[in-house]
Amino acid sequence: MRRREFITLLGGAAVAWPLVARAQQPQRMRLIGVLMGYAESDRAAQSWLAAFRGALTKLGWTEGSNLRMELRWSASDADKMRTLAKELVDLRPDAIFGTTTPVIAALARETRTISIVFAAVSDPIGSGFAANLAHPGGNITGFMANDPSLGGKWVELLKEIAPRTARVALLFNPATAVPIQYFMPSIQTAASSFAVQVSATPVHAEDEIEGVIAAQGRDPEGGLIVMPDVFNDVNRELIIALAARYRVPAVYFNRFLSEPGGLISYGDARDEQYRLAAGYIDRILKGEKPADLPVQAPTKFELIINVKTAKTLGLTIPIPLLGRADELIE
Fold this sequence. Notes:
The protein is an alpha/beta fold. It is built from 13 helices and twelve strands.
């Protein structure tokens, strides 16, 4: 080989080496925090988290490769939510995914700069998380869980499946629930239409639940609406068992409360929210801002009837109601 050709070849290789080295460099590891409003032992919450993780994988994010996830479970404990929110913010993640209204409130108190995506939040504007749905305007966006008109729908469904119902208690914990005012206009309108008396019955601890349900059970025309509330989520098995013991017809806000024995539920498709939230996390990690990503309201609602529970309570489900159900649990 001639000397000039050798030098030319050597020079070309020298230029190529940095290109090869750059091509072989691993993609930068991104960090996201996840704060769940539920207990780690909650099977429904684990299935929703699996949907979130699965969606991230399909979008090209692999834990341990280009993504690290710091996961925390608050088990509906408001104090624990605040502690864990600070803990995650102090890690300075690229983005945070949070679920339920009190969790997002805790995160919002800790940061106005780190991008936050939520699921299972009912009233993001009233809670101060977003300026409006189309243009949130801050560092928070995500996917809503409930529409305010659902309150009236729960009254209607309870009256339809248990026609004797005339006095209804709204079960919620003020520390963790969606603000009850969000649903009250539609609840009061429906209650007036169906001649039903509605009363708010706040509880602050697990041992207060039985007193509310027992009181409704002593009233032959008593009924119960289990309001959207992570406290009710976490205590759903106890609530369902007490409703059965005291023979109280109850309506719930999501299918994961009907599946273990709740009489009837009407609410959003929760797993879909988690998949969609993964899409927003992906877009934020690729450079988009939450201020520019619209808050999205639920578009799909599911009516679930637990036929076995209805039989236990001696209720005959009207045929039109059976026909509207998305699923019947035998």
